[in-house]
Amino acid sequence: MNVAAKNFFTRHRRRVLWAAMLLLAGWGIWRSLPTPLFVEPWSTIVLARDGSLLGARISSDGQWRFPAGEEVPDKFRLALTTYEDKRFAYHPGIDPLALARAIRLNASQDRIVSGASTLSMQTIRLARGSPERTYPEKIIEMLLALRLELQYSKREIMELYAAHAPFGGNVVGLEAASWRYFGRNPQQLTWAEACTLAVLPNSPSLIHPGRNQSRLLEKRNRLLQRLHADGRLTEMDLELALTEPLPQQPQPLPQLAPHLLDTLQATSPGTHRFRTTLDAQLQRAVSAIIRNRATDLARQHIHNAAALIVDNQSFEILAYVGNPEYSMDRERGFAVDIVRRPRSSGSILKPLLYAAMLDAGEILPGMLVSDVPTQYGGYMPENFDHAYRGAVPAEVALAQSLNVPSVRMLKKHGVHRFHDFLKHLGMTSLNRPVEDYGLSLILGGAEVSLWEVAHFYANLSNIARANEADGKETYRPLHLWDGEKTTPAPHAEISPGAAWLTLNALLEVARPGEEGHWKNFASSRKIAWKTGTSWGLRDAWAVGNSARHTIAVWGGNASGEGRPGLTGSVVAAPILFDLFNLVEPARWFNMPEYHLKELEVCKDDGFLANGYCETKKQWVPSNSDFDQPSPYHVRLHLDKSRRYRVHSGCERISKMETADWFVLTPAQEYYYRRQHAEYRMLPEFRPDCATSENAEAGRRPLDFLYPDHGARIYIPIDLAEKKSSTVFEAVHRDRNAVIHWHLDEQYLGSTRTFHQLALDATPGAHTITIVDQKGNRIARNFEVLAEERP
């Protein structure tokens, strides 16, 4: 240190030391303000789209402390500053005028009458855990209040105070107090309610029912009169406010979406305030319907139900009900959020297969699909009504949710292909190898959540509207709350044409109850909808689309217990149409003409016209490359009587007459003609023309109903511990025909009219052959599985 500096320090040592101490003190004050200012745990709340409270969970320290959200409303801000800190907007954290007044009053009264605490100082006091009031503590609060004002704006300080001020009992913060005492959003508080809450943090014990009510009323009314004197209230406002009663006791908080709140809390643990897209009024109405329907279903020991409503334009969730009620009853599973829980899909995925096959050029809407006994290996699907129809148009098979045609369609499309298609659309529960699902994938072999079902069907509507002003040819994610993380939507694998045709097919699904007559009324709304029922009657599904909304419903038992009558049409469908009555009707989709083209098809079987059939026009997706001419329409050569078929080997060509004929296979025909009286049987060959060679491939008069080629058969043990027999069945166009049965070239017997034969074959590979009296024959290979006993 040089001489000059040493002399300066010697002469001004006291000033240097004071400056150093002040700098050190300033640095200490600056560093003393904690970050964050408050560390208390928040309650978790879920809000509707309009900010109204749908539900809340208490914080980990047992307080109702809502996380800060919207700005402090003007009424409360004016009431609070008038009551606590009228110069809040102007002072730097300490109000010198209020401080001088407090010193004078306290000195004259020889006791503490006024603390001169500003809202900034009170915020610091709350952040420090409200320590005992002492003069040193007051000095610390003043210094930290100054520091607070340097870092935070007045608006932010007001919000900090409003979020952490005590309002009596375990209620902390303005928003929690507003809902606990008045059952409404702080923005909706009246002047009287705002003044009641403004005076409470200063004396929170005044709120207790039956205690100090007169003092609370006096404080509130005095504040109202001060606001009137300041010109904030008119005379009429004051008179009305003075007549309002005080809250008598805390109100229970709304619990309109408890299962959603649990799910959001579990999936986003760092978030405590969820502003959702739900419509509070609609959520309340949907909850009531689910609850009332569940009460009725409980008599059948069906206890759980869930529902979602989606806005097809914005893809926002408008209603979300995860269960009829909320409790920790594990037996009934009322705490389970069914919306997110994977359940057996039943038939609910069939429309997606239909749309995919339309785009792939594998089917046309009116194309016949076989509906006869069918077996693939050891898998033999059945229709829900255990009946067969022979052959049905693909769109009818979808509308009637027929299982056998659907399995045949999946076999044609490919299980791997459909499995990949579903995963690409966002089906997250397909977590097993595709071989584990097999053809049962289309009949409930996979699990899907109600959320995913609503997502799939909402996108059908979205894509079908691609040519409309607000439509988009994209696959979109559902939107539930403001901060949610969404994965990028895949490119739509369903064309607008296929989506529109699929939804139009679903218009024909028979509706339950009085809704079944909807076509008789011009005012009825168009709703494309689908049901689903899982194996064992465990899950009931119903999902529907109008142009504006998608609604998805599930009913059943969270435990997985099946019950008689637990089907989509009986349990879920009535709820679905109850919910559609809550939303506004909307016009149906416009035809996406740019995404469709017309084909000429045969009227009877829906395949491309081959010149031998009456035709009609059929809309198909513009990208379809379907190229299959009708296999069922043929040109026959008949004799002059037109009763018999002939050929050039037995009749001169000049004497032949031609006729176009619709001919199904014998197996299809056997069932089809029961429901179609107009079906004309294929004429027989005239006796002098009939030979076995004339039964050309595909036109044989006989066929197997069971087994299919390559069937794998397990013969079970009956109740008497004896090996059962397997009944094989065949069909013949000639009702009087005799069929001779052979197993591995050994004659077994003959049948007439009803062609059924019980066989007891040994394990291994076999060939069953049937021959009629004219030499027509057909054979099937099958395998009998070895007996499996525990």
Structure explained in plain terms:
The protein has 790 residues and is of the alpha+beta class. Among the domains are: 1-32; 63-243, Penicillin binding protein transpeptidase fold, CATH 1.10.3810; 632-690, no CATH class; 702-784, Immunoglobulin-like. Helices cover 32% and strands 17% of the residues. The strands form nine sheets. Strands 7-6-14-13-12 form a five-stranded antiparallel β-sheet, with helices on both faces. Strand 6 and strand 7 form a beta hairpin. Helix 3 crosses helix 10. It is elongated and about 135 Å long. The termini are far apart. The model has no long low-confidence stretch (mean pLDDT 86).
Structure keywords:
790 residues; alpha+beta; Penicillin binding protein transpeptidase fold; five-stranded mixed sheet; 22 helices
SS-derived structural category: alpha+beta
Strand order of the largest sheet: 7-6-14-13-12
As a whole number of angstroms, the C-alpha radius of gyration is 39 Å
CATH hierarchy class name of the domain at 63-243: Mainly Alpha
**On the 0-100 scale, what is the average pLDDT?**
86
CATH superfamily of the domain at 63-243: Biosynthetic peptidoglycan transglycosylase-like
* Total beta-strand segments: 26
CATH topology of the domain at 63-243: Penicillin binding protein transpeptidase fold
Beta-strand percentage range: 15-25%
Question: Share of helix among residues?
Answer: 25-40%
Q: Stretches where pLDDT falls below 50 for ≥5 residues?
A: none
Q: Choose one word for the global shape.
A: elongated
